[in-house]
Amino acid sequence: MRLLLLEDDIRLAGLLERGLRNEGHAVDRAGTIEDGRWLATENPYDVLILDVMLPDGDAFDLCAELRANGTWTPVLLLTARDAVTDRVRGLDVGADDYLVKPFAFPELTARLRALARRGAPERPTVLRVGQLEVDPAARSATIGDHQLSLTAREYALLELFARRAGDVLTRTEILERVWDWAYDGTSNVIDVYVRNLRTKMAEIPVAPRIETVRGIGYVLRPDTPRGGLKVAVDRVRGRSKVEPAATA
After folding, report:
1. In the sheet where 26-30 sits, what is the strand order?
2. How deeply is 83 buried, as exposed, middle or buried, from its count of CB atoms within 10 A (0-12, 13-18, 19+)?
3. DSSP assigned state of 103
4. Which of 20, 55, 78, 246 could form a disulfide with 25, with the two C-beta atoms 3.0–4.6 Å apart?
5. Got the DSSP string for 61-97?
């Protein structure tokens, strides 16, 4: 997932950012309402993690402003204030969840997974694409009886493909979702990680295939026959139509 972390406590922000990155998430970090507002409106995030009390305002007002302007990204509020009135206010201004400090890191990651599911129509806890099963809670991926051994970044990329199975993902979308805005390398890094995933999945006879859509990006297809497919792209950001490839 790509996350925005708005937290002015440098030590806590550093710990959370490091922990989330170790989980394979892309994290953009801000310490003021002004910076958080700009990032939240200029980038596509799966969840916004907002500390309530900040030097230049509070996240209640920011959340209300984002909702009023049509930003519906799930919001998780972090605060040391545990009064019922504060929790009610946070939910009333449009937040989706509320976590009181101090909290256990596994609880934070579990809440993030729950919030990310709310953005999908069916909100499954385990993502299934043909024989592929991706479990965000366990951060594991299996194809049939085969467990895939993946790095954190490989897993994050595969989870994105599984969440958007059948959609043609552009290189820009992939960089935005799996890497953060501070990444200053080239999009060739995507090719490297896609090649790694393909190599690991190719060891299994019946497995989904990550197909290249020339000039656009990649798409995950369930249990694609090795004969290949011709992808006729109806739209870049969304579903694509598949036609059988001509055989020689």
Report:
1. 26-30, 2-6, 47-51, 75-79, 97-100
2. exposed
3. -
4. 20
5. HHHHHHHHTT----EEEEES---HHHHHHHHHTT-SE
C-beta contacts of 118-121 below 8 A and 24+ residues apart: 118/74, 119/46, 119/73, 119/74, 120/163
> What is the reported pLDDT for 237?
41
Q: How far apart are CA 183 and CA 100, in angstroms?
A: 31
- In whole angstroms, how far apart are CA 131 and each of 147, 148, 204, 206, 208? 12, 12, 10, 8, 7
Q: How far apart are CA 118 and CA 113, in angstroms?
A: 9
Question: Stretch 208-226: mean pLDDT, rounded?
Answer: 84
| pLDDT range class, residue 170, cuts 50, 70, 90 | very high
Contacts of 3 (CB under 8 A, 6+ apart): 20, 25, 26, 27, 28, 45, 46, 47, 48, 49, 112
List pLDDT tens digits, range 74-124: 999 998 877 788 888 888 888 899 999 889 999 999 999 888 877 645 556
In the chain the domains, ranked by start, together with CATH numbers, are 2-117 (3.40.50.2300), 127-244 (1.10.10.10)
d(CA 191, CA 72): 31
